[in-house]
């Protein structure tokens, strides 16, 4: 019997991979990786390691989740050491819990290696702390998809009147609706909002506004991106430390015209 490692590969910057995650990659006979895993991380694997792409995007499925589950079980039963690489953290909207459950059903030995989730890392690289003593003592990591058992209205009413900071995964396409529902259920139209595209990577772009203005400012932002809602977004004005793609282009243009 082999073993499966469910590894969080982090949010994009390969330097944010954990040491334990790196060990699991180096020890793997087989690596199953997702769409948002930085390909530079795969270079740490042994030359003999076999790779299988299991990524999903909003428009197509390269491999259904059920097939990924079956593949992990089959490979482990053959005695392979399998590393399942997932963007961010495997247990934060990564379906890692479902995969661990499947492995447990077949008595496959497995280990979970947490990773840095984009809901924390992308705001941090954009100069936005998700909590701050002056602005927010609570934060929620949510998706744009309704919680099971709740209507859309109930879901967003709960969030509008709940945590002071919201980090919304997979919500860019529904941004107009999200803003509308949060305002409808009590959030001020002046609540700060930020969108961070490709957080922690060389392609990172951040756009800020309010619940009433962010939609018209966000046309250049596409998936993958994190939406941050709350007063903590104000902190970007003071502690924006990471030079983003747009900043670099602006600086290059400025230097070239001197």
From TrEMBL:
It comes from the Bacteria. Pfam families: TP_methylase. Residues 3-214 form the Tetrapyrrole methylase domain. PROSITE patterns: SUMT_1 (PS00839), SUMT_2 (PS00840). SUPFAM superfamilies: Tetrapyrrole methylase (SSF53790). Its EC number is 2.1.1.107. Keywords: Methyltransferase, Porphyrin biosynthesis, S-adenosyl-L-methionine, Transferase. Belongs to the precorrin methyltransferase family. This is uroporphyrinogen-III C-methyltransferase. It comes from Staphylococcus caprae.
């Amino acid at each position: 019997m082999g073993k499966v490692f469910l590894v969080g590969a982090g949010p994009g910057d390969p330097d944010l991979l954990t040491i334990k995650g790196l060990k699991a990659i180096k020890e793997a006979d087989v690596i199953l990786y997702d769409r948002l895993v930085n390909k530079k991380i795969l270079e740490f694997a042994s030359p003999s390691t076999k790779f299988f792409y299991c990524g999903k995007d909003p428009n197509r499925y390269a491999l259904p989740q059920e097939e990924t589950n079956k593949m992990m079980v089959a490979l482990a039963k053959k005695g392979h050491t399998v590393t399942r690489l997932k963007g961010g953290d495997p247990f934060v909207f990564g379906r890692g819990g479902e995969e661990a459950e499947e492995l447990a059903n077949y008595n496959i030995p497995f280990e979970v290696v947490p990773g840095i989730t984009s809901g924390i890392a992308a705001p941090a690289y954009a100069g936005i702390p998700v909590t701050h003593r002056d602005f927010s003592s609570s934060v929620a990591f949510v998706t744009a998809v309704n919680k099971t058992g709740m209507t859309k209205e109930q879901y967003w009413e709960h969030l509008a009147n709940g945590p002071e900071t919201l980090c919304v995964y997979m919500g860019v396409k529904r941004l107009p609706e999200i803003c509308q529902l949060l305002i409808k259920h009590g959030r001020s139209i002046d609540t700060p909002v930020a969108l961070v595209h490709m957080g922690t990577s060389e392609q990172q772009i951040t756009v800020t506004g309010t619940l009433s203005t962010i939609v018209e400012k966000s046309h250049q932002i596409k998936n993958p991106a994190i939406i941050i809602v709350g007063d903590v977004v104000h902190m970007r004005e003071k502690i924006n430390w990471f030079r983003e793609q747009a900043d670099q282009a602006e600086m290059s243009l400025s230097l070239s015209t001197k």
